[in-house]
Specification:
Mean pLDDT: 76
Number of domains: 1
Order of helices and strands: HHHHH
Largest sheet: none
Strand content: under 5%
Number of helices: 5
């Protein structure tokens, strides 16, 4: 069972190490990293063991809920704005979803001001 969880735990270890580094700005790294974890590493495959599927679903749901990854209101937060505008992350699929939501929200806000 532990051997089955090793790839998932390795992904979480790498994400934790990157986000814990003192020499990087985490405001623009946080959401791309978490979206990458949820959208790529925590998606279950057909050949995953039942315990791995349960772990991936539970961990992914907890990350999405804790950091409001799919919440449109989060798009106006300054750290999400920094991540969306950071050119290093513009090609990530999760950031594309966030960028589209953010763009629509900003167009609506600008239209209401003008």
């Amino acid at each position: 069972m532990i051997a089955d969880l090793r790839p998932v735990l390795k992904s979480l270890q790498i994400a934790t190490a990157v986000l814990s580094a003192e020499n990087t700005s985490t405001s623009s790294l946080l959401y791309p990293m978490l979206l990458g974890l949820v959208d790529d590493h925590l998606k279950f495959n057909n050949d995953d063991a039942p315990t791995v599927v349960t772990f991936k679903c539970t961990c992914g749901d907890a990350i999405v809920q804790r950091f409001a990854l799919r919440d449109l209101a989060m798009a106006t937060a300054i750290h999400v704005t920094a991540a969306v505008l950071d050119p290093r992350f513009r090609t990530l699929t999760g950031m594309l979803w966030l960028f589209l939501k953010y763009s629509r929200l900003m167009v609506g806000l600008l239209a209401s001001i003008v």
